[in-house]
Specification:
265 residues; 77% helix
């Protein structure tokens, strides 16, 4: 158990630093790293992806508040957008977690691989959608929130890879879109964690120290380590060539996704 916790502390150090440095969700790093930890721990392979997704979302539920507070202090959160999109986010993420409970580990890994390649392409191509419209009305915001929440529950992220491009296309300034996305990530994490706890209840083959599909030792290790490293990453962002580092991170995503794809094939 000590070895597992130390491994998860290492995951938290890396994920926290990257989140602070590049503003990317740590889930894209946490999920594949946890798959390796679970394999080392001897956990049944058919549970790996569900445990990794649930635990990744649970870490965001803890670490997301600090990010929101920092962005709010700079006036970079559109709380009107958060209020409009959150009901759809909550419903979509919770329902998505229930659907994920019915999908096999292989099926969820295929979804993760496709999404990782998508995010990597975004970064490599520096894709920025043209601001061509205004934010939609309440009904459409609820629908968009449902889509963002559901996809996020299937890949274990806070939704920034989807919500930032959406808001940017709706004439929301990039910095404000990023700050608002951090606020949207909190209900995604809370609803996703609750959904995976509920869908994992009664699964007899789950290992010890789990709450539903959330693996508590991994959650504790990652949260403890990611807090201080996120601050260091944010400080380093002002001194390091972030555009180049984003391309390096995209290459890392491609490697992680390709490794998972090789295993699937």
């Amino acid at each position: 158990m000590i070895t597992i916790i130390l491994a998860c502390l290492s995951v938290g150090l890396i994920a926290g630093f990257l989140a602070g440095l590049l503003g990317v969700g740590g889930g894209l790093v946490i999920v594949p790293a946890l798959l390796a930890v679970f394999q080392f721990a001897g956990i049944a392979p058919e549970l790996h992806q569900h445990l990794a997704l649930a635990t990744s979302l649970a870490t965001i539920a803890f670490t997301g508040f600090a990010s929101v507070r920092a962005h709010h202090a700079k006036g970079a959160v559109r709380w009107d957008v958060v209020r409009q999109i959150t009901p759809g986010i909550l419903l979509g993420t919770f329902v998505g977690a229930q659907i994920a409970g019915l999908i096999s580990t292989r099926g969820l890994q295929w979804i993760f691989v496709a999404f990782a390649y998508f995010v990597a392409a975004q970064m490599l191509l520096d894709f920025k959608p043209k601001a061509s419209r205004q934010l939609p009305k309440m009904g459409s915001m609820l629908g968009m929130g449902g889509v963002i929440g559901m996809v996020s529950s299937w890949v274990g992220i806070g939704g920034g890879s989807l919500s930032v491009p959406f808001m940017s296309a709706c004439n929301v300034p990039v910095k404000t879109a990023i700050g608002t996305s951090s606020a949207i990530g909190v209900p995604i994490a809370l609803a996703g964690t609750a959904g995976y706890i509920y869908s994992g209840m009664g699964i007899a083959s789950l290992p010890a120290y789990t709450l539903g599909y959330v693996y508590i030792p991994a959650l504790a290790g990652i949260v403890i380590a990611s807090f201080p490293m996120a601050k260091l990453g944010a400080a380093a962002a002002h001194r390091l060539p972030v555009p180049i580092l984003k391309k390096c991170f995209a290459a890392l995503l491609i490697l992680l996704a390709s490794k998972m794809l090789w295993t699937l094939l």
